[in-house]
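Researcher: We're teaching a course module on how sequence relates to structure. For the next exercise, students receive a sequence and then see the predicted structure as tokens, so they can try to spot secondary structure elements on their own. Here is the exercise chain.
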Amino acid sequence: MTTRRERVARATVIVGALGAALLVAEAALRVIDGYVVFATALRPRGPVAAQRETTKGADRPYVARVPRAPGVDVGWYDEDPPAYARYPMEPWQQQRFDEYVNDPYPAFFEWNRAYLTDRVCKNESIEPLKTFLFFDPLEPGIHPTYRHYRRMSPPGWFVSNTFGWRGPEIALNKPASTIRIAFVGASTTISPYYLPFSHPEYVGYWLNRWSAANRKPYRFEVVNAGRTGIDSHSIAAIVRQELAPVEPDLVVFYEGANQFWPAREVRYRFGRLYPKPTTTYLVRPGEHRFAIVKRILAAVDRITGRDGSEPPKPAMTPTWTGAIDERNPNPDDPRLPMDLPAMVRDLDSMRRAIEPAGGELVVSSFLWMVKDGMKLDLRVNMNIYDFLNRTYWPIPYAHMRRMADLQNRVFANYARARHLPFVDIAAEFPLDPDLFGDAIHMRPWGLRLQAWIYLQHLIALVESRVADGRLPQPMHHPRAAHPAFEQPAPRFVSPDELRASCTPSSTQ
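Model: And here is the predicted structure for the students to work with:
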């Protein structure tokens, strides 16, 4: 009969053997997977493994591959524009910032009073503010829905210039021997407010570096008139009401997300919808301490579909299949999906607004970080996964890619039909998820690379226009004041005051 002491001794030997085996296995897996063997937590071994822990620097392998315009020094890529002097907040601004400290952006937007009135009178939601900064648009109507307050820079906010645009200060009337360029779009143009620079600001700085280095007899002014969350109707209104009076030589249009809703353009074959995925990346017990646990969890993720692959989605077909020429779409075809006919009309409106003063519209393709069969590292690219599989559920990646390509072909054919410059940024920018914050917004190093690609195209375009004698050009109609901003500020209106202006017809 086995005694208790013998059973304890046998168990101790078994446990010791298992422990030794686990230690050997752990050490072996750490060697195989590139971790430091003797460390209390998983720590990458060597510079290559360490780099994988962050996406910073993901732009570096691509910089040398970008064809450079003549006279461009690749060393400029690492240079930043000089910092702007920030404006101290006025007492009312500080008070407002303190009141809305958790979400100060809407409190400092200058809202179109017609837009606010339209929303309130239709009982549609507006920002939960006690009062709204407001302006009255030059044109009747709700666009642009808002603009940035001028000469202001609260914490976490970019420096806005005299016109509320992001970028350096400029005069109302364009100086002699100056080429003025404006970028327009939505959040992918204005860029995160907290970043020191947006991609148009890098472009402006590098253009002037190029001009000085090559002794060009002109300089550049580049402003960013983008605005988060707006569509092409507001973008067109910004060009007509705000930019046209300052006579930009080039207006660069970059937008393709806020009217991009492919779920409206599909039919489901079997009428079945899968539930939304619930994948989130949370650090699980032992995951960052033991290579064995990390391996086991990775295997479980592969089995359960939590490995960054696209989750199952229902079969679907586009509603426009056979109705349009998908490979070569007519930009003026009213059957185009995704509000593209309205976008084309707005592009025409921008073009007509700036042409009288010699301005030229530059159309860009739009970047979507999506492709069929894409598998993401959820540890660093969870936002892309969430964006595609929650915001756009249940549209498959393949269909998203197809719609994005169709939209860009429409933009390309529009530019060709109107004899406008076209920058195919989507064809040249690498679809590397480590450059993106989500499926459309860039990380800071992605923004820098995007600006670098734009730089090469704009230099070529400017050189062409200079050779033709079209640039630089003087101000055609000098002004004493900007018509869109010649009104008192700040002005405030409350929701109750807006409701008081509603008429019976406006509430229908």
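Model: If you want an answer key for the exercise: Residues 91-150+478-508 form one domain. The mean pLDDT is 89.
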